[in-house]
C-alpha cells in the first residue's frame, strides 16, 4: 500500500475521495452538510444531529456523523458487529443499507480503508452501467485499500 494510503484518514479525505468518483453531484444539504450523489442517489452524506445518535454518557446529539451506503446488509453487519470498527448504526437505520461513522473517529481508519468504503458506497448506488465501467477501469488490485 502506498504510504499515503496507510496514513490515518481525515474528514478532508471523505470529500476528496467522494469527489474523485465519476458522475458525482454535491448538494449542500442542510446546515452546509454536503450530500454526495451519483445518478441522484446519495452514497455519502454528513448527517445533521439527530435524537437517535447520542453520547451515551451525556445524552447530547452527535454533531459529526457521516453516513456511508454499503452494498448489502451482510456488509453492514460485518462493519458494525466488529468491536474494533469505528462504524455503528442506530435503530433509525434498521433495514437501511448504510453505516454511520463519527468524524472524530475517522483516524481509526487508514486513507486506503476509507477509499474502499467510499468506492463501495458509490458502487452500491451507481447504475449498473456506470458501476461496470468503473470496475473495468479499476480492477481490485489497482484500487486503493484493496489487495
Which helices and strands occur, and which strands form pairs?
Blueprint: H1 3-6, H2 11-20, E1 24-27, E2 35-38, E3 41-46, E4 65-69, H3 73-81, E5 87-88, E6 98-102, H4 111-125, H5 128-137
Antiparallel strand pairs: 1-2, 2-3, 3-4, 4-6, 5-6
Helix pairs in contact: 2-4
What's this entry about, in short?
By secondary structure, the chain is an alpha+beta fold.
Task: Summarize the structure in words.
- The structure is a single chain.
- The protein is an alpha+beta fold.
- It has one domain: Aspartate Aminotransferase, domain 1 (Alpha-Beta Complex).
- Helices cover 33% and strands 18% of the residues.
- It has helices spanning 3-6, 11-20, 73-81, 111-125, 128-137, and strands at residues 24-27, 35-38, 41-46, 65-69, 87-88, 98-102.
- A six-stranded antiparallel sheet has the order 1-2-3-4-6-5.
- Helix 2 packs across helix 4 (111-125).
- The N and C termini lie close together (8 Å).
- The mean pLDDT is 91.
What general form does the structure show?
Answer: globular
Tell me the series of helices and strands, N- to C-terminal. HHEEEEHEEHH
CATH topology description? Aspartate Aminotransferase, domain 1
Spans of at least 5 consecutive residues whose pLDDT stays below 50 are none
Which radius of gyration do the C-alpha atoms yield?
15 Å
How many domains in all? 1
| Strand content bin | 15-25%
Question: Main β-sheet, in a few words?
Answer: 6 strands, antiparallel
Named at the architecture level, the CATH assignment is: Alpha-Beta Complex
Helix content: 25-40%
Number of helices: 5
Q: What is the CA–CA distance across the termini?
A: 8 Å
Q: Overall mean pLDDT score? A: 91
CATH class category:
Alpha Beta
The structure class reads alpha+beta
Strand order of the largest sheet: 1-2-3-4-6-5
Q: Give the number of DSSP strands.
A: 6
